[in-house]
Amino acid sequence: MTTVTVPHAFRPRDYQLPFLKTMDKGCKRAVLVHHRRAGKDKVCWNFTIKKAFERVGTYFYFLPEFSQAKKVIWDNIDNDGFRMLDHIPKEVIKNINATELKITLINGSVIQLMGADVFDKSGVGTNPIGVVFSEYSIQRPEIWNFVRPILAVNGGWAVFNFTPRGQNHAFQLLEMAKENPDDWFTQVLSVDDTGVLTGDDIARERNEGMSQAMIDQEFYCKFIESATSFFKDINEVCTVQDEDCNPIRLYQMGVDLARKVDYTVISIVDLNTFEQVYLERFNQMDWALQKAKIEAVYIRYGRPKGFIDATGVGDPIMNDLATRGVNLEPYIFTEQSRKDLLTNLTLKMEQRLIKLQDNEFLKKELDYFQYELGVNGKLKIKVPDGLHDDTVFGTALSVWELPHKPLRVNQMTQSYQTPGVAPMNIEWGF
Question: Measuring CA to CA, how many Å separate 424 from each of 232, 248, 274?
Fold first, then answer.
């Protein structure tokens, strides 16, 4: 008879043992705040596998977005060339659904990778008995509020792992957990606690441009408000809602194109108020329907000036739209042009020159962006692997090359004039 050990090919590090032992003793809640590269997902994934054989049921493993779940766990290969999925021996797997990222074991348990961004569509009506929230500091906190009563009824467990991201909902969860040590296991580990990284490793990160604030956050687990956030004061700027087209106003349009995994985004900004009056994102839509939608919005807002992603497949799409009377200027995405767009957007936000929509996806994506400041003052801007940034770039295109100040209606010039329409002479007072 073949003997199978579960978890497979995993030996916990010394600093991971307190978590595993405490949970094995019956603890149902845990918060793990570990520094970057400490192996948070490795230990949580293997813990989930073990629990799936101890009690038959459904187990969820959440990451901020579904695409990230696929990249971080499903497709991930560690530095030793070992796949995360291979921690489950093939002999105990009954079925694998690569589309839904779901693994059914021979004992009947199901382990499913989830994206917090799509849980409303795929998680309603389910009954998980074990849940991991990975990178909880950049997840939707309301998912926990949905899952919590289910676990309370079925006696299930929940584990939250993350690296600090300011004093947000994850920080508040940690503080609450510390005040309830009888029910919650908490562990905050910096590089000084684990020994995984050396002083030379940290020095190398600093020399390559990582700011001290980011080092303190990422490697020493300090909860520094806005330490690495590229976009500041998001909630103060994102306050407005959709607004129908006003024929006496002028608008500017931004379009970021995508077809399958990513999202096409359309953004409209009122040039008389610098407020974002329209924002929509969509995916899984063929090009014919996308072009029809873009054209419809373009006509609806008076054929505005604007910019469209003309990178790669975007170029023929832009040209085809032009033949239909949609005259938007091309914007080619390069490393530098992306930085230019983002820098322009954050400056306008910080200076309160614009008002953006109170939109869940926009605010979430703005919060994803982090920065590193290089030794020569060169700005590095990044989003965690597997997360979307399309709504931000669509918005950034719509505020690119705005006038220096909001226009009066009678300030229509040739560049802002609707083709084929005589200039209006309507006074707009401030």
Answer: 38, 8, 20
**Is a pLDDT exceeding 60 seen at residue 368?**
yes
Type and span of the H or E element at 300? helix 287-300
Domains of the chain: 14-220 (3.40.50.300), 234-416 (3.30.420.240)
pLDDT, position 404: 77
Convert 83-99 to b/e letters by CB count within 10 Å (16 or more is b): ebbebbeeebeeeeeee
Show the tokens assigned to 360: 């869940």
- Strands 58-63 and 93-97: what pairing? unpaired
103 φ, ψ to 5°? -120, 125
With beta carbons less than 8 A apart as the criterion, state whether 218 and 163 touch: yes
Cα torsion for 197, 201, 206, 209, to the nearest 10°?
-110
Closest C-alpha to 251, from 284, 275, 221: 275
The encoded tokens of residue 325 equal 């009377």
Angle made by CA atoms 178, 179, 180, in degrees to the nearest 5: 90
Whole-structure pTM value:
0.66
Closest by CA position to 115, among listed 139, 85, 99 = 139
What would the pLDDT profile of 257-282 be if each residue is shown by its tens digit? 986 678 999 999 999 999 999 999 99
Nearest to 61 by CA among 84, 80, 93: 84
Written as one letter, the residue type at 200 is: D
What single letter denotes the amino acid at residue 123? G
